[in-house]
Write a structure and sequence with these properties.
Layout (H helix, E strand, L loop, with lengths): L1 H23 L2 H8 L12 H23 L3 H25 L3 H19 L1
Helix pairs in contact: 1-3, 1-5, 3-4, 4-5
């Protein structure tokens, strides 16, 4: 179970690295394609806000990768649980405030990884 949890944590980290990229560097291109319901003229005005959000995704990436690099099993577990819980909370909040798809893309993988971590 630990290997499966680690693989899922790496996938979640990669997903959030992608979020960081498009929110910080490709908001006007990938952001527009991703959030089609938002009028195109809004994107240039929200670029700084999106970059800030992307930076927070970068912190999630750093924490998740850090959890994979910690040799002490207890601390690796604690750090992974903390950052996966942050991702899960963000996914639940996003589902209630923006789009239900956010839970399926972000929250559910974090929830599954948390369950796998506790099954080891």
């Amino acid at each position: 179970m630990q290997l499966l949890a680690d693989i899922l944590i790496a996938i979640i980290a990669a997903l959030h690295l992608y979020f960081l990229y498009f929110e910080m560097f490709a908001w006007n291109t990938i952001g527009r394609k991703t959030f089609r319901k938002i009028p195109a003229d809004v994107f240039p005005h929200t670029k700084v806000l999106a970059a800030n959000q992307g930076l927070y995704n970068g912190f999630l990436v750093a924490g998740l990768i850090w959890s994979l690099l910690i040799e002490d099993q207890k601390w690796s577990f604690y750090v992974a649980v903390f950052f996966l819980t942050c991702v899960l909370i963000a996914g639940v909040y996003g589902a209630f405030t923006a789009s239900k798809k956010i839970f399926w893309i972000q929250g559910l993988p974090a929830l599954i990884a948390l369950v796998l971590l506790h099954l080891k």
